[in-house]
Structure formats: structure tokens, C-alpha cells
Amino acid sequence: MEAEPVIAAEPAVDESKQEVEKVVPEEPVESAPKKSDEFAYLDAAGFSSERFKIEIKNLPKYYGINEMKKLLNVKLSLATNKIKIMRPGCPFLFVCFRGDTERQAAIKAIDGYIWKGKKLQALEAKPSPDPLVKRRNESTKPDGVVSVKKRRTLEESVTALAYLSYEDQLKQKQSEMHNVLKGFGDEVWKSCPTLRSFIEQKRKEHDGLPCKLEDIRGSPQVDGYRNKCEFSIGKDGQGEVRVGFRVGSYSNGFLEVESPDQLKHISEKMKSTVKLFEEFVQKSEYEVYSPETYKGYFRQLTVRTSNATGQVMVVIGIHPQELGKEKLSELRSSLVSWFTSEKAKEIGISSIYFQTIEKFKSGQNAHPTTHLWGETHIIEEIHGLKFRVSPQAFFQINTPSAEILYQTAIDLAGTTKQTSILDICCGTGTIGLCFAKHCKQVLGVEIVAEAIADATHNAKENGIENCKFYTGNADDLITSLVRNANVQKDEDLVAIVDPPRAGLHIRSITQLRNARGLNRLIYVSCSPQSAVKNWADLMRPRSKVMRGGPFMPKRAIPVDLFPHTPHAELIVLFEREPEQDEEEEAELKKDETEKVEEKEEGKVEGGDKAAEVVAEEKV
């Protein structure tokens, strides 16, 4: 605080002879609004691994998150808590640990370590600021008003194409798929010089694209098609509790949640379920969870519905904070009472789950759920088959359009009763089971054990006996699946790949490339832009790692599963020319013959030399 100046007494003055000076009172100066602490979350959130972060520099140009995890956690035996890759190919990244001892051990092990020809550097890193608080501080005006980016409506954020007719939406998506395939051709042309003549030839044949692009297949149901939604719980701009969607991202300064009432792609049944739960939260003694303060309880509501049966499953996500067993038990009981009311029965709620949403613990990849009441699953139907769907299992969100998607894949695969299907990332077995009657056998793999349990049950429930499903990472099991398929000379093998948004790991691509007898591959992508690298890797020429011949794109067919949004699925048919395998086998046989001949020549030469030595000794 500044000290007030000491004013000395002035001598008396004859005011009659003195000019009067007007004194204008100074306006009070408003102090600038106080900035919020961007690192307050480190104390408010309890434990945060941001406290124990390091930066790793001088990374190689090409590496993946799984490679980095293997290096740090397996090869160097470090206990990482979080790995933050800024972007693909970034020369630096950040790694967080659970304590300073682990952090210092990591710096010692990594600094100076040679990886992929690069000498790594490791040093301590500062915690990241809270993005919401940082944005507020950056945009706070002198009057204390926070200016954020222009706020879009919820409809603009969630259903960006809803203002267009459905015909115009399909035209826009067709154009986008054309751009994606053009970019795919550019990527192959740039990264595979030996394929440039092939790409140029295909561009002439297919309007500048590397393969034929067919017309998009529209969705039979345009409005209210979503069978699953995850709703946020928070407060709107007026401070009212809402269950719906966040208008913008946390990092852009948005916390407000708005009702989904005006969204076209959500069914009335789902909207009624949201409204029912919103009333419960508004009346509850417990606050909604705040991602800014980490306080509060209600975090998320997941709703799944069935087109076939009208069933509704609700999964209520809660952060328990310090609630004891008794309080949690009371909360669960009140939820069951609320969701079994007459109003809930009218909606069709048939299943209630309770989910605990906290920070993941080491080795945890899903938030635990507890069944509270009703059916444990909902039943959906595709192609006349019944599918059991559990709370966390993957199932296409647009059931009528999924039927078109799967039929398109079946048509492209061209299967016979002599065809074995590899269903990679099979989920609850929907694609594989739809293929079952068109082929000899289906072998599926999925990392989520709960989904595999559903797939096995679905096969049994539908009386399908030629399908087997395995729990595990596709990166590790594709070779085993190929071996188990036991494809004979007069049979063929087809792979159906339906990976998560990020695509397949390079290890899976390598195993598919090296699979003998696999000459046709159907790639189903919900994010075609992200799949381009996978597609390019399927086309690359043979190498020491990818010994099998390349797969070439033949046809691409978009299918719209997401009306009113910019997204669409894209199915691409890849084929490996049969003569390439024959050439490969001939080359391998030739190599083996040459090795045998060299070995025999070595024996003969060795025998002749021995005879000469014996003769010299005798002389």
C-alpha cells in the first residue's frame, strides 16, 4: 500500500488578494479486475499428475503412441500416468507421473537414450494452466466482462447441416468424400514414388481419384435416428440446471449446458428421458459436477434406445466425492424409484445402471457400472437377427442405416460358402453375424471383453454356429486368426475392418499385409480423413516388414449414418491381385532352391578341399 504524503501547514494568505483556483475533484480510478489463478486446479483437484511432468525432446519423425508406451513402460520400466502427444510427428511430447521419485527416475533413464537413431533429451516441465481460466484471463476486459469467441447455438454446434434439405446434405457429403479420396491419392503419390504411374492411370479413369467413388447411400430415417447419446449435466447461461449438450469446449471458455429439445437427430423418447432426469437433478440435494472446480456429483447421463423393442436403458454417471456407502446407497435407491415411476413406464425405461466417473486409475480404461434395476441389456434387430447390447458395448447409432452399411459390405466382399471372414474390431459381432449365412466361417476379435460376451451370446441366440469371437488386441491376434481360419487351397479369406475413429495400428496393417491367402479387404471407416494413412500403408510396395503384396483400392461407397451432421461412413474395397501371391511363392521357392544349391555346392567344395589336404599330407 502506498503511503499518504505528509502535507506541511501553509502560512496564512490574504484571500482578498489571491486568485481563486477551482479544484476539480478527481474521479475515482477503478482497479483492474483481479486475474484468476490459472494453476488453482492443482490444489482444488487433489492429486494431479501435472505436478510431476517431464518434456521429452528430439524425438524421431515417425513414432506412435503405442510405440512410446512400450518404450517407456516396458523397455525402460517406467510408471507413466499420462502421455501427451501434441500432434503426429511432433519432435517433443510431455509425460506425467504420479510422484517426483518416478519423474526423476524417468529423466535419468530417458536423457541421452538412443531411440530410432535419435538421442533423446528429458527435463522437468511446468504444469499446464487451466485452459478455461487462461481463456477468461486473456479475454477479460477492464470492466470485468469476459469476451469469448462468438457463441454458436446448440443446433449449429451439434447438427451443423440441419439447415439444409436432406438432398443437399447428401450432395455436400458426396463432395466431401470426393475430397477425401483425392487427398488419399495425393498421399500415395507423394509417399510411394513407385506407385505414381498407377495413381496417374486411375486418376484418368475415375475423375481424378485413385478408385471408383459410387453415389452415397442415404439414411432411411433422417430425424430422431440416434439410439445412443451421452448427455452432459451442468447449468445454462441463467444458472438453471440442465441435462443436454455443452455449447462449446472447455478450452474455449464454455461451461454452459443447453437442452436438446430442438435437435432433429434425437428421438422424442430420448428427449423425454432427458427431461425426466433433469427434473430429478433439479430437485436433488446434490450439486451438478463442475469441471472447473472439480466439485459436485452429477456428471453424465447415457441413454440407449431400441428401434425394435422400444426399450430404454439409462446409465447415470456420478462423481461420488466423499459420499459414504450409506449416502450412495440412498442415492441409488432414489434413482430407481424415480426411473420406475408411471412417467418412466410411459417412456419405456427398462434398464437402470449406475456409473462411477472419477479419474482413471492405473490400468483402468472404462468407468465401472453397476446394474440397479430391470433388464441387463436392450435388444436390437438388424437383418432379421437379434442383438443384445450392453451399456458400454459399441453398436452403430443409426440402426436402419446400419442395415444398409452391412449389406453394402456384404455385396462388396463377394463371399461364397468357401470364404472365411476375419472380423477385425468386431464389437458385439453385428457385421460378422450378418455375414455368417453368406460364408463358411467368421472369426472376430475385439478388445472390449463385454462386447465379446455380447457377440458370443448373439451368435447363440440366433442359432449361428459358424462364428467365433476372441477377446484381445487386434494388433496381437490377427496372425492367430489367420492360422485358425485354416484356409485351404480352393478357399479364400476376406478381412472386414471396422476400427475406431483413429484407425488401425501399423502392427495390424502389417499382419494383414503378411496374411497368406488374404486377397480382399473391406475397410469401413467412420472418419475417412483419419483412415488415409491406413489406406496408404495397405498400398505400399513390399518391404522387409510388409512382405505380402500391396492391396489396391477398387471401389468406395459412402453411407450416411449421421443425417444433419457433416459425418458419413465410407466403405473401401481393397484387392490384392492373385498373381502377386503366385509370384511371391515362386520367388520364395526360387530363394529356397538357391539356398539349397549353395549349401550343396559348399559341401562339394568342402569335400574337394579335404581330399586335396589328405593328398598333400600323403605326399
TrEMBL record:
Entry's Gene Ontology BP terms: methylation; RNA processing
An annotated Gene Ontology molecular function: RNA binding
Keyword annotations from UniProtKB, A to Z: Methyltransferase, S-adenosyl-L-methionine, Transferase
Gene3D superfamilies: 2.40.50.1070, Vaccinia Virus protein VP39
Active-site positions on this chain: 526
Region of interest (Disordered), residue spans: 1-28, 126-145, 576-619
Enzyme Commission number(s) from the entry: 2.1.1.35
Organism superkingdom: Eukaryota
Residues that hold S-adenosyl-L-methionine according to the record: 396, 446, 498
Bias type Basic and acidic residues, positions: 14-25, 132-141, 587-619
Substrates-to-products reaction catalysed: uridine(54) in tRNA + S-adenosyl-L-methionine = 5-methyluridine(54) in tRNA + S-adenosyl-L-homocysteine + H(+)
Biased composition (Low complexity): 1-11
PANTHER family assigned to the protein according to its UniProt record, in alphabetical order: TRNA (URACIL-5-)-METHYLTRANSFERASE, TRNA (URACIL-5-)-METHYLTRANSFERASE HOMOLOG A
Family per similarity comment: Belongs to the class I-like SAM-binding methyltransferase superfamily. RNA M5U methyltransferase family.
Name used for this protein in its record: tRNA (uracil(54)-C(5))-methyltransferase
Organism annotation: Culex quinquefasciatus (Southern house mosquito)
